[in-house]
Amino acid sequence: MLESRPGDAFQLGELLNNTYRIEALLGRGGTSDVYRARSEISGRLMALKVLKAEFTGNDDYLALLTREEAIREIRHDAVIRYSECNRTQDGHVYLLMDYVEGPGLDKKLKQGPMPADDLLTICRRVAGGLEAAHARQIVHRDLSPDNIILKDGDPSRAVIIDFGIAKDTNPGAETIVGNEFAGKYAYAAPEQLDGRTDARSDIYALGALLLANFRGKPPDVGRNPMEVVQRKGQPLDTSGLPEPLKTLIDRMTAPDPKDRFQSATEVLLYLDGTEGADATIIVPKPQKAVDSPAPPPRRSRRGLYAGLAVVLLAAAG
Length: 317
Known about the structure:
The chain has 317 residues and is an alpha+beta fold. Helix content is 31%, strand content 15%.
């Protein structure tokens, strides 16, 4: 829990719309803050994401919140349940969602390596949630340890949160934050650096975060823009991982999307096939040495390098 500040949108004990009593400040973000609130009517705990004052008049950021609200149509226990957007009398816009009690995978990452069995359980649960989201043409685009919470600390009750930059891939739909890169560099799929995203990008991110939590440390994506781009084009180092986790992550995180599992359903089918199996190791598909299709033409990455440089300098500072 964080201490509130005089300039925060809400203060502890404040009552919103005669219904929700603010109990705690859970986190601060670049565009929004998250609070825990309790309904004075039902007693139910809720999480409340409020857009920062400087963004409440920006239609793009308002659209981000309404995009999240629309994701309430996804019905799966592994996907956070959203309620509705509201605006207070003084203009603060907030989004209500279920409050999930438990550690995030980012906290578990800081505590050290996680057991392979727990990670396989998390993979099954999260893949099921992604399957439900992808069925509605919604790609998360920002899967990372801080966006997965283990409800009551139970890997089998993992919940995906924060669809704030989710992309609607239905024909004709617009991406609120544009078609450029969205997501965290450490876990983002290589194609996201070029602004291309589909369901396979979420599969890559899930595999990358599973690897990070097994190792107990975040991926090393490089110290400069050139290293980031080069390393994203290489397979992740899964040496030393036990089976079936190694093959699973190898097939989730192939640099070329065509070489990955093509859907969350395929991930689940693979997991189904390893349950109760003997010690036989499933060998990943070999990469073709010849006759590979030529990669699509790429845009200039001058702008990408500049953006990466800013991020890396900020992290260094």
